[in-house]
Structure formats: C-alpha cells, structure tokens
Write a structure and sequence with these properties.
single chain, about 375 residues, 4-stranded antiparallel sheet, binds fructose -6-phosphate, binds magnesium ion
C-alpha cells in the first residue's frame, strides 16, 4: 500500500489590523481557533495552528485533501470571513482590504496567500513555517537560495549523501507570467542571475534532485484587492521540510542570521532589514516595521501538528536583531530618498500619478 499523503497548507490574510497595521487582535485569533476547532472535531481537517505576524493572520492546517482542495479552501474562506466580522465589530483597522467579498472555489485568487505541499510523512517529519510582515514575495529568494543552494550556509549540501545532488528551484517570472525550473549546483549562476531581481523573479518551490521530493514552497502570488490584480503579493509564507536528507532545522534558520534588505516596510514603499523575531515580538510598530519574520517549527505526527517551537526565540539571533536596528536607523535617515524609498515602478501604493496630474500644467519645456 502506498504511504498515506498528508497536505500541509498555510493560509495568510489581513482581516483587520490592531492597532493600525501593527498587529492582530486576540479576539480575531480566537474566532479563527473556534472555527477550525469545530472543523477538526468533525474530521474535516486533521489538525491546525493559528499564528499572527504583524497584522497578518496565519492558519496552518494539515489535512488529506491534497493541494487546492475546495472543501479546505472553503473552510478557510469562512474562517477568514468570520474573523473579519469580529474585526469589524471591534472597528479594527481596514478589515476589507485583504479579501474579496464572494468565495469562488480557491482562496488563492481572492486575497489571502496560500503555501501548500503534499508528501508522505517520513518516520520523523520536522517542518518550519516562516511567516512575515511588511515584505513582498521575492523576499524569500535569498534565504531559499542560501538554504538549498549554498554550502556556506547549509553544510549538508557537502556532507549528507541525499543532498549531494542538490536541489531544483522553480522560479516564476512575474512580468511574463511563466516559470522555469533551474537545477543546482549545475545552473547555480543562471539561478542567481534571475533571482537577484527579487521584484520580478520569485522562487515558488524547491525539490530535491535525488528523488524529486518536495522540500520547500512559498505563497508566491495572490490577488491584491487594492490593485485589483494577481501580483507578487505581500506577507508571503514559506514552508521548509527539514532533517534527514533535507537541510537541518539549524541550517534553515541560519539564513536569517543576516538581516538582509527586503522591499516592503512603510506603505510597502521602502527597503528595510528583515528582522527575525520571536512570536511575542511580531508587532510591526516602528515606521510600520521594520519588516519581520517569525519561524514556527513543528513535528508532524500522523498529520498532527506537534508544536510550534518558536525558532527565533534564541539569543543566537540577538545580533541579527541588533544589526537590523542599526541598519534601520541608517536607512531611515534617507527619508523619502532612494534607495530607502523604492524606485517609482516598484512603489505599491504610489500616489505619483495623482501628484503628477496635479502639477502637469506647470511643467515648461527647457
Ligand atoms: C500596510 C502597511 C502600512 C500602511 C500604512 C498606511 O500593511 O504596510 O505601512 O501602508 O500604515 O496605511 P493607510 O493607507 O491605511 O493609512
Ligand atoms: Mg497587512
């Protein structure tokens, strides 16, 4: 008999901020918990866990429905909708910006972000769910490359026989809307040539070359309710399988010991350092940031989510936080100037067309 497959699905949505866009209210999390507890009781899902990073609510769900399962997506939609109602009762901030009004079968095209993978659970199955706030999807390119392609980060690439053949990265070209699979180490330079352009090329998933086993997946694209289009999406989630032929847990989090620069932060219009924080520090307050990431470690046990372990609640990341704060100070002193402020074509909430319209008559030929 084939091994039973488990699906691990991570859903993210902004259903209303507390306070402003800084964090999420406990009542909203309680609403999500009640809904999913009832669904688990009826056997509709195997297990779940609720987290929040900044003003994004995250539902981590294990089930046996496979990818894009209509019933699970429907349950998630109802859950987010109920959470939005709780947010509206409390008059939390901007609950109507994160989701469309009517469900159409798959939450992927309706506002929330989705990162899903299906696999046969190994004898022991450690996974890490990374969740972020005030960042865009391409922000995972650097750590994914370091974890699955760089032996200076992941020693297993040169010492674990199952990883010696490397990994294959699926890269989306957001502009042309097509994807390419690039195999490392052979095509490492080609991969880097593309994924360094984080606003256009986004690593969507990673598989192991030896056997094609899924190793990592992110929520790469989602419907932007404000912009009215499917786009790179903000606040992406990332799931990484670890140990025994996959990167070790410590190698997966090591990529965040350097607080590299990402696009997002205030009004999704600035670059800033990505700060790894424990769950209790995942409130984006200073200048609506700085951008931050949390890491929730789980052991799967017959689909049960044993955890989470708060992976960045470790003094080993204190220095990353300190460097991030110093970098934030340095960048903030640039105010509205590049490179702190994003180039015009990457500005998410650009008021430039309105401003230019206002003054267009006043430009004179020189
Ligand atoms: C949104 C975000 C925030 C907002 C900013 C302005 O999550 O990143 O930085 O862009 O707080 O918000 P509004 O336009 O709602 O006043
Ligand atoms: Mg938000």
């Amino acid at each position: 008999m084939a091994d039973e497959l488990v699906t691990l699905s991570v859903f993210t949505a902004d259903v209303g901020g507390f306070v402003g866009h800084a964090s999420s209210h406990p009542d909203v999390l309680d609403t999500a918990r009640e809904r999913l507890q009832a669904a688990r009781g009826k056997g509709r899902i195997k297990d779940f866990h609720i987290l929040r990073c900044g003003d994004d609510l995250n539902l981590i769900i294990s089930h046996s429905g496979g990818l894009n399962d209509r019933a699970v997506h429907g349950l998630v939609w109802d859950t987010f909708t109920a959470c939005r109602e709780t947010a509206e009762e409390l008059k939390l901030y901007a609950p109507r910006r994160g989701m469309l009004e009517d469900f159409a079968g798959n939450v992927r095209s309706m506002g929330p972000g989705v990162a899903e993978m299906e696999f046969a659970e190994r004898t022991s199955e450690p996974v890490i769910v990374f969740l972020a706030n005030k960042i865009v999807s391409g922000s995972w390119n650097l750590p994914l490359f370091r974890v699955f392609g760089d032996p200076f980060n992941t020693s297993g690439l040169v010492s674990d026989p199952a990883m010696l053949n490397g990994f294959t990265f699926r890269v989306l070209d957001l502009r042309e809307r097509h994807a390419i699979d690039l195999k490392t180490p052979e095509e490492l330079h080609l991969l880097l040539a593309l994924i360094g352009s984080t606003s256009r090329y986004v690593i969507a998933s990673v598989t192991r070359n030896t056997d094609g086993e899924i190793a990592a997946v992110i929520s790469s694209e989602k419907f932007d309710v404000l912009a009215g289009t499917v786009c790179a999406g903000c606040e992406p989630a990332m799931v990484v399988r670890c140990q025994a032929g996959m990167p070790a847990v410590g190698e997966a989090v090591e990529a965040f010991a350097f607080p590299y620069l990402v696009a997002g932060w205030m009004r999704y219009s600035h670059i800033g350092p990505l700060m790894p924080v424990p769950f209790y520090e995942a409130h984006a307050t200073r200048f609506d940031g700085p951008p931050r990431v949390i890491a929730a470690g789980f052991q799967l046990s017959g689909g049960r989510l044993i955890g989470p372990l708060d992976m960045f609640d470790d003094p080993g990341f204190d220095r990353a936080r300190k460097v991030a704060n110093e970098t934030a100070d340095y960048l903030r002193r640039h105010g509205p100037f590049r490179p702190h402020r994003l180039p015009q074509e990457e500005l998410e909430f650009s008021s430039m067309p309105i401003i230019l319209e206002k003054v267009k008559e006043r430009f004179r030929k020189i």
